[in-house]
Amino acid sequence: MSADLHRLAGLPVIIGGGLAGLMTALRLAPMPVVLLSKGPIGTEASSAWAQGGLAASLGDDDDPALHLADTLAAGDGLCDAAVVERILRAAPAAIETLMRLGCAFDRTGDGRLGLGLEAAHSRRRIVHADGDGTGRELMRALGAMVLRTPSITVVQGVEARRLLLDDGAVAGLVAAGPAGPLMVPTSRVVVATGGLGGLFLDTTNPLGCFGQGLALAARAGAELADLEFIQFHPTAFDTAARPMKLISEAVRGEGAVLVDETGRRFLAGVPGEDLAPRDVVARAIWRHVGRGHRVFLDARQRPGAGFARRFPAIAAWCREAGIDPARQPIPVRPAAHYHMGGVAVDADGRSSVAGLWACGEVASTGLHGANRLASNSLTEAVVCAGCVADSVGGTSAGRAGRAVASSALPPAADPSAIRSILSRGLGVERDDAGLRAAIGMLRPLAADSGAASDPAAVGLMIAVMAMRRTESRGGHHRTDFPQRDALARRARIRLDEALAAAAELVSPAAMRSAAHVNTTARSARPCR
């Protein structure tokens, strides 16, 4: 393997075997490229688990302007409108591209693409495959195409641990392989490593997705953006299994409703009710559970007897748990699902570090704003992969392999010590005390060089940004600052800035000041 990688020195390297990584590699063809994947293609990526589909304005009653309006509304003031328009106008062509690459999507009786409805969409515009198996189908078709493409060298069983820099630009990466450490010389790296749900105790993501790409970029000095915006899916299957199975939003799109143990539809009166934006539904369920209730998704009337035909994978999970969705409500509650923040990138996917691009969930493009509109993420990955590929392909090989600062192999990252910290301090609802406590615990771990260091660094950056955002917006809700600021603002941060800010926030003087403010706020609350 070492000899092969040496032979491939200087070629662009894509880190990640999910949808974004595979599409970027395919769009670069016939240009030679190296694709690194920690496990077999698709096995450790959230893409393969996607039950929702790809949003695109394909219906006769739809157009990109309507899709744009829905996305901006869900993004709660933080979307980059120009980015949204560019990506969504390219969405229909992205579906055509996927079909040319062998993806088989669900169709109606007359042969047209079947279009589903999900929360906060004003039209049916979600393209699915095999009912709730869209991710599996994408990974099947694209994985096969990647393995058949001669220009793509797939190196599986290799984990990137650090990016190497020369004069502030990417010059290579250090990775761990079956035979030990590897140094891969390259001046062009695309990070396509997915999300960070594995940093939480309750998540619908593979546990191996815990922000490794964010850590790679942060340790290289890249700016990260909007990290505090984490989407908690409102309907994770409430069982003891971890990670949690996802009960797709499309189930509610087909008419299922949320009820509590008494059968009451507790979302009645909320604008949008069961199909309100995800952050609204997640908070409503979180609070209802906090008051001692249980929450269920009731699909007995709709889709009713057709549930297993429309959602075969979900029906199988329910059967394993002893539940028949056509006859019994499904227990649900919120779980960490999608990260709207990520590596700050421009329209071409370039980060603030020369030679480093990001694509997919690990990137912050400006499409999702404060709260992702359902099924826009797979569409984003496909469209932006083309932009990244064009940019990478138009960039010269540079000075890969020159002297770099260090090639030591860091230890394998382990987020187990971080999960309870983030789950307590950065969950569905947040406050000053919880964020400050999380920062105090994360800072020494992030500054260390142990297995928890990289996960703690990512968690610390999220916590500092959440602390600084003294408002509630989209996926970031603070009980001590429940109102939304009049001025919408995006924010960026580097790891060194987060470490410095954390030191100030947990200083003795800052802790005394925070305690005084919290005590004053409590004493000012009206009696009940």
Question: How do the helices and strands line up, and which of them pair or pack?
Answer:
Layout: H1 2-7, E1 13-15, H2 19-28, E2 33-37, E3 54-55, H3 64-74, H4 81-100, E4 115-116, E5 126-127, H5 134-148, E6 152-156, E7 159-166, E8 169-177, E9 180-185, E10 189-191, H6 212-219, E11 224-225, E12 230-237, H7 249-253, E13 257-260, H8 278-290, E14 295-298, H9 307-310, H10 312-320, E15 330-339, E16 342-344, E17 356-358, E18 363-364, H11 376-393, H12 416-425, H13 432-447, H14 453-468, E19 492-493, H15 495-505, H16 508-523
Can you give the mean pLDDT?
93
Count of strand segments:
19
pLDDT below 50 for ≥5 consecutive residues: which ranges? 516-528
**What would you call the shape?**
globular
Radius of gyration in whole Å, from Cα? 23 Å
Could you name the CATH class of the largest domain?
Alpha Beta
CATH level 4 superfamily of the largest domain: FAD/NAD(P)-binding domain
* Share of helix, binned: 25-40%
The rounded distance between the terminal residues' Cα atoms is 68 Å
Q: Report the CATH architecture of the largest domain.
A: 3-Layer(bba) Sandwich
Reported for the largest beta sheet, the result is: 5 strands, parallel
Helix segment tally: 16
Polypeptide structure, described:
The chain is an alpha/beta fold and 528 residues long. The protein has three domains: 2-228 and 340-393, FAD/NAD(P)-binding domain, CATH 3.50.50.60; 234-336, Alpha-Beta Complex (Flavocytochrome C3, Chain A, domain 1); 416-523, Fumarate reductase/succinate dehydrogenase flavoprotein-like, C-terminal domain (Methane Monooxygenase Hydroxylase, Chain G, domain 1), CATH 1.20.58. It is 36% helix and 16% strand. The chain contains 16 helices and 19 strands. The protein has helices at 2-7, 19-28, 64-74, 81-100, 134-148, 212-219, 249-253, 278-290, 307-310, 312-320, 376-393, 416-425, 432-447, 453-468, 495-505, 508-523; strands at 13-15, 33-37, 54-55, 115-116, 126-127, 152-156, 159-166, 169-177, 180-185, 189-191, 224-225, 230-237, 257-260, 295-298, 330-339, 342-344, 356-358, 363-364, 492-493. The strands form five sheets. The chain has a five-stranded parallel β-sheet with strand order 6-2-1-10-17, sandwiched between helices. A four-stranded mixed β-sheet has the order 18-16-11-19. It has a four-stranded antiparallel β-sheet with strand order 12-15-14-13, with helices on one face. Strand 7 and strand 8 (169-177) form a beta hairpin. The radius of gyration is 23 Å and the shape is globular. 54% of the residues are buried. Residues 516-528 have low confidence and may be disordered.
